[in-house]
Amino acid sequence: MITDIVEKLGQFTDEQQAALEHVFERHIVDSDHPEFKNLGFRDWILGDVHKAIADDCVMAKIPDMWLGIEPDGYTHS
């Protein structure tokens, strides 16, 4: 459903959403990692991207690590 991804992305700032698109294109698209091979953006967002409990950071799982994305879009491991 479209509403599930819209609802999830709605939790994040515009800058975080743009950073997630960049992370997806850089680390997930064309990945040969078994967990991420042929994974679409929607399924990645719904299964591997989560809002951190303690602050406004978004945590995104990519092959072999997690990335944190701050409200201003700054991305770090």
Helix content range of the residues, please?
40-55%
Q: What is the average of the pLDDT values?
A: 95
Sheet with most strands: strand arrangement:
1-2-3-4
Task: Report the principal-axis shape.
Answer: globular
Gyration radius (Cα, Å) is 12 Å
Q: What is the domain total for the residues?
A: 1
Number of strands: 4
What does this structure look like?
The chain is of the alpha+beta class and 77 residues long. It has one domain (2-76). Helix content is 40%, strand content 19%. The protein has three helices and four strands; from the N terminus they run H-H-H-E-E-E-E. The protein has helices at 2-9, 14-28, 41-48; strands at 49-51, 58-62, 65-69, 75-76. Strands 1-2-3-4 form a four-stranded antiparallel β-sheet. A hairpin with a 5-residue loop joins strand 3 and strand 4 (75-76). The longest helix has 15 residues, at 14-28.
